[in-house]
Amino acid sequence: MLALSFRRVSVLNRLLSGPFFLKNGHERRFLHGTREPFKVLFFGRDEFSCSVLEVLHKAPRDIIQGIWVITTLDQRVGRRGRSLSVAPLKLLSQEINLPTSFVPNETSELASWSPPHPFDQPSPSHLLLTASFGRAIPTSILDLFKPSQRLNIHPSLIPEFRGAAPMERTIEAGLTETGVSVIQMEDIKGGFDVGDVWGQRPVTISPTATFQSIQPILAKEGAELLIQVLRDMLAGEAVSTPQDPALATTARLIRPRHCHVDWSTWDAPKVERLHRAFSCRRPLYSALPTSPPTILQLHSISLPSPDTPLHKRLTSPGDAIFSPEDRAIVARCANNTDVHVRLLQRGNRGSLVAKEWWNGMRPEWLKDGVLKLIRLEEE
Description:
Strands 15, 16, 17, 18, 19, 20, 21 and 22 form an 8-stranded antiparallel β-sheet that branches. The protein has a 7-stranded mixed β-sheet with strand order 7-4-3-8-9-11-12, covered by helices on one side. A 3-stranded antiparallel β-sheet has the order 1-2-13. It is elongated. It is α+β, with helices and mostly antiparallel strands. 34% of the residues are buried. It folds into 2 domains: 14-251, 3-Layer(aba) Sandwich (Rossmann fold); 256-372, Methionyl-tRNA Fmet Formyltransferase, Chain A, domain 2 (Roll), CATH 3.10.25. It is built from 9 helices and 22 strands.
């Protein structure tokens, strides 16, 4: 009896001596015996990363004792490298005086890159965190952290919308509820965003939400959720759950071809949703019936009010006219629906409001006063 009691005490002491997992069905419980606040190595780049960092920087010091930011180097972009692309996260981290290091721009060089000291050596208090970093973390870096202490803030209710563009694909799908997840990072060989879920929080979004409007909301919710997960880890109360692969969907990266309007298959609500989802990064576009065809970017897209009658002069998808009453180009879409476009840009020229753009229309582009917008050959 004494031996049995002693064994139970020994097991309990082992449980409380350091971070590891207890399995309970499909759940895993994290126990942390040291209670030392986390030192965070934070990988990110864009505005989403910035919104996350702003919250974490103000986190209680008994949860996060310090943050070291990792982001990308400045890059020359555009024609002949005339523009300099600077990571927004770099500017923010320097503004709030956080230590900052940079990863190589070449993906092939990232595998041999070493994180700054002290993160180049394992430690029970070290936490690897990513938020919209946009690149896979190499195994050599993941291995420096305990599996439960390499986390990603993902703006969807995982396993829904795994991948590079969850916010854009949420709006594209017309959803009014999304969320944020804190997930464990695994080796990329197993796939993107497949790790255990340490926390989730649903978030309701407006039916007219744009990428720009939901990005800061989801970033803030994700950062606050992470702080709660870390608090639970330090208290030995955090629980993770493996994902169900059968429920997984993919949020594909937005490519130019995804923004090429197909007037014959996209109805007006879809065109308007994709504008709200994609236009911050890539505008929707069509083409003019020139020789060769000229790209026409479509900005400021909206739906007509429900009581607006269809324009009788528009008889097939891709037909377009200028409507003085609406101060917009009205374009016919699939299923006998119309959209309004109030700002357009032809080729490399500057953008123009609808009336000014229509005034520059060439007669040979029109048939009975109607313009036919066309779709380019498959790209």
